[in-house]
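Example S7 (structure tokens).
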């Protein structure tokens, strides 16, 4: 007679046998699937080897074979097969600015996508250079000497911080990792748990959501520095950085990097200008950097080699950055240096904010030309200041519809304080353009939704305040917002508009309620009542004579 314990034991044995049998079958099926996928891919490779291309009527089938193989084969083996496939093809496509690669361009779109996605799983020492690296970001000559450098980083730099809690600081090294070549990073044991990374590549924008690619959609790699020695490589190569958490403050640390090549790298106050001219700017990497005390410019080496006075250029850019701090009422000392990185294609627009700030390649010669910037000889100069401004915006004083408006206060300020330009530096805010836009808005009945949709129309309102009261009230109010407790900060869009009107009114000693109402910018009666004892202010000759009643 079976006891309950004996029954349970027998049941466990039977289940174990069945499970083992099932796993055996599954494992066999899985192996068969891998073998079948590999075989079909091999057959495709042999066919392409003979025919030098994939026939048009076989492209869909080829994409299916490649995709299935990518699902089951190891990353190293699969990528090796794809390399062979592409080498045999005479019709393979590498994305360029002149011939972008779109989803319709198969099988190259699928092949490149899989090469990048599967490449993330390849150990550093087995990564191969990708052919697209030659086009962008560029190759390193075989004769370039590999060096060993000790990189000293001060993690306790004083100053204020821009960025979120997860923001990592990039520390430039002046080194470049060639495509597919391993570099070694060594550090002390006590640094292995501090959240450090080595990054290869400055072009951090991912282009997966773009309809077509002018370069590979992802060309940077990062490796956690959790051991005293770390191997790192990138199929596309790139400038080498050490990343540290924004809140890491452990003083000066040293990291050693072996196997990289030297890049053109100038540091204001440290690099000798004569050495820069004679030697440093000719270092072999295809990209390099100019570092001020507030901003770093990442640029193609061919552009850097035209820069004769990097000291004057970076002093100028530091002055520009100090003006942002000045308008905000902040100390000029920054904990994090902002960065500009030009790219052949970026993830959004012609430029965008962030860390790093991104822009297109056509403005690189302007970025290093102080006179062209001061005299606004490139249409993108306003945009440079605009994107830096986004990094300095505070959304407590930026309500819905003004994300592209309050940012331009910074552009206006830089144009006013640093540049020598007529009509504020942008064609949409010349006196005639503002007059035309304002009159049209009021003639049509002042609709707040229209105001919110037109950034340069909305900017007219802010410019009226600036032209009457100067920049000082803006700075005063910006500083005031930073002192607010969580309970005092605006909780919604209505409170944002109310607080901006009330705080600015008190800063200038005028009742701006009627002014806001004239523009149809919505505020509450309670907010307007709170400033009703102040003298009412309205610009001379405003609203325009043709104004209709607000909608």
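Recovered sequence:
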């Amino acid at each position: 007679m079976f006891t309950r314990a004996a029954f349970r034991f027998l049941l466990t044995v039977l289940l174990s046998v069945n499970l083992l049998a099932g796993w055996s079958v599954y494992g066999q099926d899985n192996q068969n699937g891998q073998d079948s996928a590999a075989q079909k891919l091999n057959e495709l490779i042999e066919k392409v080897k003979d025919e030098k291309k994939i026939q048009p009527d076989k492209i869909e089938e080829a994409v299916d074979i490649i995709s299935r193989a990518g699902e089951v084969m190891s990353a190293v083996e699969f990528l090796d097969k794809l390399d062979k496939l592409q080498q045999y093809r005479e019709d393979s496509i590498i994305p360029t600015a002149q011939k972008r690669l779109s989803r319709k361009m198969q099988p190259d779109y699928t092949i490149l996508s899989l090469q990048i996605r599967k490449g993330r799983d390849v150990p550093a020492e087995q990564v191969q250079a990708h052919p697209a690296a030659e086009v962008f970001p560029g190759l390193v000559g075989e004769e370039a000497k590999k060096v060993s450098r000790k990189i000293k980083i001060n993690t306790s730099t004083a100053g204020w911080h821009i960025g979120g809690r997860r923001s990592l600081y990039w520390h430039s090294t002046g080194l470049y990792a060639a495509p597919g070549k391993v570099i070694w990073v060594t550090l002390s044991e006590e640094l292995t748990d501090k959240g450090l990374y080595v990054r290869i590549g400055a072009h951090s924008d991912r282009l997966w959501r773009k309809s077509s690619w002018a370069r590979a959609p992802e060309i940077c790699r990062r490796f956690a520095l959790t051991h005293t020695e770390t191997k790192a490589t990138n199929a596309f190569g790139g400038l080498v950085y050490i990343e540290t958490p924004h809140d890491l403050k452990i003083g000066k640390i040293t990291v050693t990097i072996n196997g990289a090549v030297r890049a053109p790298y100038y540091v204001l106050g440290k690099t000798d200008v004569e050495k820069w001219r004679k030697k440093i700017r000719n270092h072999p990497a295809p990209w390099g950097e100019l570092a001020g005390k507030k901003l770093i410019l990442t640029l193609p080496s061919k552009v850097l080699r035209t820069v004769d006075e990097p000291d004057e250029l970076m002093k100028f850019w530091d002055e520009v950055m100090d003006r942002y701090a000045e308008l905000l009422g902040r100390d000029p000392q920054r904990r994090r240096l902002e960065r500009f990185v030009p790219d052949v294609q970026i993830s959004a627009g012609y430029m965008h904010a962030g860390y790093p700030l991104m822009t297109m390649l056509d403005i690189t010669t302007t970025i290093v030309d102080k006179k062209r910037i001061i005299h606004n000889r490139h249409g993108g100069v306003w945009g440079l200041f605009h994107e830096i401004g986004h990094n300095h915006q505070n959304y407590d004083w930026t309500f819905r519809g003004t994300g592209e408006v309050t940012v331009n206060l910074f552009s206006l300020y830089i144009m006013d304080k640093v540049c020598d330009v007529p009509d504020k530096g942008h064609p949409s805010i010349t006196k005639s353009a503002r007059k035309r836009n304002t009159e049209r808005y009021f003639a049509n009945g002042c609709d707040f939704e229209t105001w919110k949709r037109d950034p340069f129309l909305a900017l007219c309102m802010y410019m009226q305040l600036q032209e009457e009261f100067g920049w000082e009230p803006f700075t005063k109010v910006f500083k005031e917002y930073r002192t607010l407790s969580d309970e005092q900060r605006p909780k919604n869009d209505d409170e944002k508009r109310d607080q901006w009107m009330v705080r600015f009114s008190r800063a200038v000693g005028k009742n701006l309620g009627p002014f806001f109402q004239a523009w149809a910018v919505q505020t509450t009666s309670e907010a307007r009542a709170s400033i009703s004892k102040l003298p009412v202010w309205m610009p001379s000759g405003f609203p325009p004579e043709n104004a209709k009643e607000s909608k």
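Notes on this example. The two ends are 91 Å apart (CA to CA).
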